[in-house]
Structure to design on (391 residues):
């Protein structure tokens, strides 16, 4: 049997969405009582079963759903029979039937979601394969957003199988790396890749580590691409930082701290903090060799910097509310105490041994003294580094 004609898909989707909503309601209220078994959810499912029989039977992927709906019709009919016996056995039988009704509604919902997932992935892969997606940019972004939302709902074995079969991760990376594609589309491809890694890191991380995703994110150099890079570092941790360092991408990240755009500098600093937390000795060495501490001292000296203790002392926004107050201060002055915040990441992070932490702290102190323009500035930053600051 051939798949459903493409022009019928929107009509089927409308029917299936109605079936899905009704099945969800039925799982919540699978009443065994005959008076209540005439619920709107059951009636809706039965009406749709009659209406959609010919439509669903034309798609082999919906055959199991058609069987579930036929079973539902039989089960509901038995529940609606007049109950002339009021024995315990009769009561238990009807209770068991109600539970079967709830399980059946769950199976109906699963089959519907599987069909929607398959159709959505097919639409997305077709759109990604187009040589000139710019003409359909809005539609492609809509499909990418829908895919990202779906995989963000959590792991699902059937969805994973569909993703692997469709090779959609290869297509996403291919579009991400295509400089002729609009930045908007590339950013949404990056969001989708990050969502897939969080969906199941063990299955999809290998391709990201071996592919060109990281280089493409840094080449694109937008705030969203660096935000995705930060997400990937938090998800994949030290192995990704190792790859970033091995591929020579650390200088690009440190270079972003020099951009005129404040938001980009802030995102680059967030990325530096993430690398500081998960990075091993080689990655930290690479950042320090690129003049990271000198740049952080400069940023802390700027109008967007300062030190947190002094800012809290002279803050006029009202009573101290702990972390909330510090968060407000960092929103106004994102580079406040940035040297100490980086040092704390090394101290509490996962990538370094204890002796390496001690050595790096001493190295940071030396560089702070060299980069400071006054003894007072050096003393303030060194005190923060020695005593620690909130990461």
């Amino acid at each position: 049997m051939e798949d459903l004609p493409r022009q019928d898909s929107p009509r089927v989707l409308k029917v299936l969405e109605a079936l899905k909503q009704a099945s969800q309601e039925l799982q919540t209220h699978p009443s065994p009582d005959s008076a209540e078994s005439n619920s709107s959810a059951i009636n809706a499912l039965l009406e749709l079963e009659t209406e959609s029989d010919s439509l669903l039977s034309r798609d082999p992927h919906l055959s199991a759903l058609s069987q579930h709906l036929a079973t539902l019709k039989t089960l509901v009919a038995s529940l609606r029979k007049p109950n002339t016996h009021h024995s315990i056995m009769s009561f238990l039988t009807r209770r068991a039937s109600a539970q079967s009704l709830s399980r059946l509604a769950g199976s109906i919902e699963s089959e519907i979601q599987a069909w929607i997932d398959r159709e959505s992935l097919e639409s997305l892969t077709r759109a990604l394969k187009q040589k000139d997606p710019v003409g359909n940019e809005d539609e492609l972004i809509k499909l990418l957003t829908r895919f990202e939302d779906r995989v963000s709902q959590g792991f699902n074995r059937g969805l994973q199988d569909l993703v692997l079969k469709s090779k959609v991760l290869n297509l996403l990376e291919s579009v991400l790396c295509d400089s002729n594609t609009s930045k908007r589309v590339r950013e949404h491809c990056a969001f989708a890749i990050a969502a897939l890694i969080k969906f199941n890191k063990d299955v999809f991380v290998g391709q990201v580590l071996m592919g060109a995703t990281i280089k493409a994110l840094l080449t694109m150099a937008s705030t969203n691409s660096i935000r995705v890079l930060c997400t990937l570092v938090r998800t994949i941790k030290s192995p990704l930082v190792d790859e970033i360092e091995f591929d020579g991408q650390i200088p690009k990240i440190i270079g972003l701290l020099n951009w005129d755009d404040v938001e980009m500098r802030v995102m680059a600093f967030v990325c530096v903090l993430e690398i500081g937390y998960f990075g091993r000795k080689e990655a930290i060495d690479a950042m320090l060799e690129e003049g990271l501490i000198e740049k952080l001292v400069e940023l802390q000296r700027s109008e967007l910097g300062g030190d947190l203790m002094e800012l809290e002392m002279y803050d006029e926004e009202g009573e101290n509310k702990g972390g909330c107050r510090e968060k407000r201060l960092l929103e106004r002055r994102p580079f406040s105490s940035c040297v100490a915040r980086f040092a704390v990441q090394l101290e509490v992070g996962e990538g370094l041994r204890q002796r390496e932490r001690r050595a790096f702290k001493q190295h940071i102190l030396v560089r702070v003294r060299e980069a400071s323009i006054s003894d007072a500035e050096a003393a303030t930053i060194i005190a923060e580094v020695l005593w620690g600051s909130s990461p």
